[in-house]
Amino acid sequence: DPTNSDTSGHSVVVEPDGRIVVVAGRRGSGLLVVRLLANGALDPGFGTSGVYVGSVVSARAQRVVRAPGGGYRVMAISTSPPTACRVYGLTAAGALDAGFGTSGVAVATAEAPRQFACNSLAMDTTGRLLLGGTSLGAGGDNGHVVRMLANGAQDTALSAASISAQFSAVTALTVGPSGSIFVAGRERSGFVGATVVRMLADGALDPLYGRAGSSRFELSAPRSSVTVINDMRALGNDALVIGGGRRKSGDGYYNYRDAPFVARLLGNTAGGGPGVLSMQQDRVLASEQDGKPTV
User: Fold this and answer.
1) Are the C-beta atoms of residues 90 and 45 closer than 8 Å to each other?
2) Of 1, 58, 238, 240, which shows the fewest CB atoms inside 10 Å?
3) Residue 44, preceding bond cis, omega within 30 degrees?
């Protein structure tokens, strides 16, 4: 709706045939999922004239991934208290998928009575979903990660204890080709640089990654700023391309971008553990081409 300034896109999936799926939020009016044909026209075979409109959700923290065999999984936060992280299962035709969650909707939860504010979504090769964000509670915030089975049921085999112990908030996550789970977040220790951890299948930190499961680096920056990782992409051999920026200390908006950066962390190489291979810091865009980060 070009007349609604509160409508904003948050996540994109490009299909092999060139169709484009865009997840957007319209504050107070609901979740929007739009599919475009390769020529940019609305796809009449999706939703209602190319658009699916969901229940009312916040305009922030919405992500989409393509489900195995077609269809989509869309993550969103409800506006009605208490804060709730929901995943909508959509078919390739843009209807709720009755085989996912309850009537097409699954809820990701934190330990009771805490509330889960999610901001990150990834899918592994088996169709399981990984969701990251913050567990909100009276005793303070905790970083939190949830894994959902392909049918939308929450997977209790994954413990978030190691993430809650290290992070007060999760800002990004991704899953590698081999199933390794990478999580970035805000350290409880007060470290102002960036931290990435690699988790094992049960949620424990992988001791073979970095130092005791964590890889850290710092940017040359004013003392009043904190480095935040907003997005990650896992490459072959568990190498990572990460992107983010700095935010002012005390600024609770984790997507605040000042002096954007892109970095590449080594994967499982014969030469040793992971580390920062290359980095560029500037007010520029970064992309991944031919297996290398381009700034």
Assistant:
1) no
2) 1
3) no
Distances (CA, A) of 200 to 154, 195, 210, 258: 17, 17, 14, 32
Instruction: Please give the single-letter amino acid code of residue 173.
Output: L
Extract the tokens encoding 195: 């931290």
pLDDT tens per residue across span 83-109: 889 999 999 999 999 999 999 999 999
* pTM: predicted TM-score of the whole model, two decimal places: 0.83
| Strand ranges across the sheet with 72-77 | 63-66, 72-77, 85-90, 105-108
- The number of CA neighbours under 13 Å toward the Cβ of 214 is 16
pLDDT digits (tens, 9 = 90+) for 42-73: 999 999 999 998 866 654 557 999 998 889 99
Rounded Cα–Cα distance for residues 120 and 262 (Å):
18
Residues 6+ apart with CB under 8 A from 257: 230, 244, 245, 246, 247
Residue 277 has pLDDT above 80, yes or no: no
Of residues 2 and 244, which shows the higher confidence score? 244
